[in-house]
Amino acid sequence: MECLGPQCAAVLLEWLQQRTEEKNGRAEPSTPARRQGTLWTSAPYEDEAPSIRSTAELAGAFEHLEYSVFRRYENQLTRSERIRLENTIKNTLFKIDRHAEHLERAERARVEAHCQEVRASVRESQKRDEQMRQQAWRASEKVAQLSTLTPEGFEEFVAEVFEALGFDVDRRGGTGDEGVDLGVRRAGLLGVVQCKHNARGVVGSPDLQKFLGTIHHTRSHKGFFVTTSTFSLAAERFVAAHPIELIDGPRLVELVQQAIGPGARRAADPAWF
Questions:
Q1: Is the omega angle on the peptide bond into residue 270 within 30 degrees of 0, that is, cis?
Q2: How far apart are CA 94 and CA 69, in angstroms?
Q3: Are residues 245 and 161 in the same domain?
Q4: Domain of 223?
Q5: CB of 72 within 8 A of CB of 82?
Q6: What pTM does this model have?
Q7: Closest CA to 125 of 163, 78, 88, 73
């Protein structure tokens, strides 16, 4: 930049003087100090507080409420945890309803509509949990009868177990099933199930190699091979490198016990889904 002689020197002198004053703390800032903006419009929800006192606290209450509903119906919990979350959902809804009584009509309608959505979600979740709980109990009644089930009865039993674990189940089987007895889906992921009712014998790696081809052919994410028998060591080594889960008789009993456990469901079991 070309210097303008005395004008350039004057500007430089003025700048040096201003920097010195700012350093010594004597200069007044020429512009207001900048403050970092906040991304949050809600205040932390206080479960023990008797009421909601502001719009920010109302937003925090809704966040707390929605998270409590998610935890209650999407996680495996102990009985005490379920009771605590159910209580906090009821208490939060009560305080929101009472706060809405003092709002303007339009705002009150918005809050009440949001509460109705939450209540509808809770009812739907309760209905789904009860259905899975009933399926789990029906499956548990058949555990002691595994050895006496027909192949068709065993497939029906396995379907009930997967339904109790939260899967959508498509019962296939029959001629041309390509080794697929059940199709299962959860959270957008697809799986296939092969049921092998063997009172005797061991399932070896050749059966699983054929099943792996079925998994690829059906474009599934995973396969579940279920049997009342056991698997050979070679079979267990084979599935270690492939998307196949082995479920034998004892593992079936564990899954049923998990399904009828504290939450009557198991959100991530069998693994991978």
A1: yes
A2: 15
A3: yes
A4: 144-259
A5: yes
A6: 0.52
A7: 73
